[in-house]
Amino acid sequence: MEAVRAAILQMDGVRDRIDLRRNWPAGAARNALDCALWDHEAKSTGRSAAQIAGLPVPGPLTTAYTISLGTADEMASKAAEAASRMPLLKIKLGGEGDADRMRAVRAACPGSRLIADANEAWTAGMLVELMAVAAECGFELIEQPLPVGEDGALAGIARPVPVCADESLHTRDDLRALANRYDAVNIKLDKTGGLTEALAVMAEAKAIGFRTMVGCMVSTSLAMAPAVLLAPTADWVDLDGPLLLAQDRTPSLRYDGAIVHPATPELWG
Hints:
CATH superfamily of the largest domain: Enolase-like C-terminal domain
Radius of gyration: 19 Å
Number of helices: 11
Shape: globular
CATH topology of the largest domain: TIM Barrel
Helix content: 25-40%
Number of domains: 2
Distance between the termini: 23 Å
Oligomer: single chain
Largest sheet: 8 strands, parallel
């Protein structure tokens, strides 16, 4: 947090969002200032951020809900508890034991939609077996199975479950290199450096043929609100960050189970 604050304080003299994107590196600091500039323009002009961006007014969205990494039994228990109110579950994986984790969660939640985030924990030698288990268990997506820099191995294997780039994607500059390795990309504003670049990443990713996810870090509703604007065109939405906090900010987004409602102007945009 202190590093982000220090970076923001260095962004002195930024004229507008285009200047910010052109002259400052992508990351959480640029994201914070970029989204603040969107909010300032919306409030000073009386137009919503959606109108300024030329987007339709967003409606309620269904978000994934994250099941943290644990033993197979622990994760199955947590997933079963969440499944009644959260139809799309995202389970965290960690490498060894992932076949058991995936099978246990599927057995506990036979009717749930499932995606998984491997968080760079697999090796190339694990890919064929664990991708087969993911397909067997009906997973819709696997995020970032291999470490950044080692994901070239994905180009040489069959992918029975779509594979999504997370840590391997930051800005539009990364997209072309991912085209033969990944089937989808996870767009997070803290990686793109704000909504301005995220909108451009979404448009170019779709033009290339990627499916898309809009994701998040564990953050308050203020960080989620701009991403909600981006999410209606995504194939998967993972904006459960405030649900994983002990306490959110006020005002906040409204969540009804897995349904996240768009921000009010008092919050953002």
